[in-house]
Amino acid sequence: MATTLVVRHLSFSHPGAAEPLFDDVDCSLPIGWTALLGDNGCGKTTLARIVCGLLTPTRGSVSPAPSTFVSAYCEQECTREPANLEEFRDDWSAPSVALRDTLGIGDDWPYRFATLSGGERKRLQVACALFANPDVLVLDEPTNHVDTATREAIAHSMRAFNGIGVLVSHDVELIDTTCAQCIMFERRHVRGRNRTVLERYAGGYTKAQQTRALRRAEVADQLEAAQHAQQSIAQAQERRRAMMDAAAARKHGGWRIDRLDHDARNTHKWNEKQADKASAAAYRALGSRLESAQRAAESIETDAKRYDGAIVVDIEPSARREPAHVDAGVLRFDGGAPASGGAAVSELVVDGRHWHTHAIPGAQTDSANAGIRVPRLSVGPRDHIGIDGANGTGKSTVVRALLASLDTELPALVINQIPREGEQARLLAQLQGLGNAERPRVLSAYAQLNADPDRLMAGEPLSPGQEQKLALCLGLLRKPQLIVLDEPTNHLDLHSKQALARFLHTYPGALVVVSHDRWFLDEACGCAV
């Protein structure tokens, strides 16, 4: 196996798309970890799948060819069992046991994948990918759904990998602690159009952003200098034009020469003619210089425009004093009827707007009635509640109980961390069925979440992050008085997370957010955690 993968002149277009997802891009992937960064839907996952041989590019090559090495791709969705799950389940060699210990994999997890939490599924996915011992390993959003302890365990496992690693992630801390280089998908504007380019930056995310800021400052200086030169030449051309106009006016001064002095009149005409030629030549030269300056300014690549506005909604909070509530007791993880006995293996602690779940030390986790102990929970019509805690301690169980308490007439928007099968097709069909009044509102909100409405309307397949944004924007049409989001930042790029947090902070209704991103909970819900 070669020590570097080389991507040359790579292009990819979705069937029927008006323009390629990316075109004629190049990059190198050496041994160690490389982070692929960029906005949702820019092509990170597509490039990763091409590198693994799971997709065929429209044009270009990967060298050596994917068919000549062993690759493993850990997808960002955790709805399907890993292909080698049974092999991992039945293997109890020392490396397999070490993976189980490092990632905290329960012995029974491979037998009950469907009942695992999102974070537990993700841990099992990563373990199966590492167990394959590939030459090239792609981890696509490996820290989605996981808590802080699991994130650290995944980082530890990544650092022990000796092959070529590709990390698709928006997790700044993970990238900084594992990656030697970053390749950023950047949208650039040049000569009146936008295009996608790949830029390499040494180091992790923080160092890459610092370097990128310096490059952007250099480009801004170049553009300012080019625009200044263009303006100076344009002013010189205007002055020359004024001089030519003044010279034309002076021609009429020829009447002062004696009409009978033919020699003087002929000399005057010849001098004026030569002056006209010189002025015209100088004017044309300035015009050529101005065109060159304009081309130079237009050839400078700048960052494509981002949408940084606000999502505006016309929503009134519920008139109910308590839109959602849960009585004190033990909520069973399996969704069974609440129990009041001693089957609690975790508990929920309420601290104002911050609700935190944690395991109870020494509790028997294999109990048939295992669940989470909660005090009486209440969500007011304007409350913004942030919930965090370790994987498997009952966050989703609490949300499920809150939703069960809702009045059927209360307009609510619920976006789960694992979408239903066929969800993307349903959302796109709903978008296409909107009228002329509603569709622009959805597309405007979609753009404010750092997404491209033109690509959406062109029918291109949606990334998980784009799908989540569309679900939110369509749901807002119902004017929900309660929004419930379970791990909403899982698939979002950093700009999208910030835009979503800004919107949720100003949302006037009741809000319940489950997330491991503590800064996000603070921004959206106002709970310092």
Instruction: Give, in spatial order, the strands making up the sheet with the most strands.
Output: 12-15-13-14-17-20-19-18
What is the fold named in CATH at topology level of the largest domain? Answer: Rossmann fold
- Helix residue percentage: 25-40%
Task: Provide the structure class.
Answer: alpha/beta
Estimate the global geometry from the Cα principal axes: globular
Low-pLDDT parts are none
**Cα Rg:** 31 Å
Number of strands: 20
Q: CATH homologous superfamily name of the largest domain?
A: P-loop containing nucleotide triphosphate hydrolases
| Multimerization state | single chain
Report the CATH C-level class of the largest domain. Alpha Beta
Summed up, the helix count is: 15
Strand count, sense and barrel status of the largest sheet are: 8 strands, mixed
Mean pLDDT across every amino acid position: 85
How many structural domains does the protein architecture include? Answer: 3
Distance, first to last CA: 47 Å
- Work out the strand percent: 15-25%
* CATH architecture type of the largest domain: 3-Layer(aba) Sandwich
Fill in the keyword field for this structure.
single chain, 529 residues, alpha/beta, Rossmann fold, 3 domains, eight-stranded mixed β-sheet, seven-stranded mixed β-sheet, 15 helices, 21% strand, globular, coiled coil
Task: Report a brief summary of the structure.
InterPro entries: AAA+_ATPase (IPR003593), ABC_transporter-like_ATP-bd (IPR003439), ABC_transporter-like_CS (IPR017871), ABCF (IPR050611), P-loop_NTPase (IPR027417). This protein has 529 residues and is α/β, with parallel strands linked by helices. Helix content is 40%, strand content 21%.
